Amino acid sequence: MVFHMKTTVAILMIMWVGAGCVTTQERRSDQTRRARDMESLRADVYRLKEETRTASSGYEQVYAEIDRLRREQDEGDKELAGRLDQLEIRLRKQDAALDAMHKQIVTELSRKMATLMKSQAPTRGSEYGREHMVKPGETLSEIASAYGVTVNALVRANDLKNANSIRVDQKIFIPE
Prior knowledge:
Shape: rod-shaped
Strand content: 5-15%
Number of helices: 5
């Protein structure tokens, strides 16, 4: 159960790391936000590990008690058999509680990871770059030349159908 949770957490963290970056101008603030979010996730993972460790400790105590009682049990000892039955019921309840906690952990971490990934998704693919606001009279060729990139790179980065179809005040993503 603990191995499954660690695997789930590792997969979610790998997905988060692959989320990418936004424009060059926003990179520093994104890095700060990511560091803060990552620290929050680390704290959550630590808290969840502690809760799991506590639950596992409870299992160990119950199993030890069952073993001790079974060693003490005589063939006709009905009281001891009843105590063993009670301990097994407690163990089943604890197992159900641990399963519910595991589901809650996975759900909570999945929700947080989805929120983080959505908030940190790059505006244009996974490239670094900046944005340019088209001014009256500018052409895509002039913009490309000013930033030292090709017209084709701008067309691809902005999913333009036609290089001549830009308009005033349009934001153009300039890849690095």
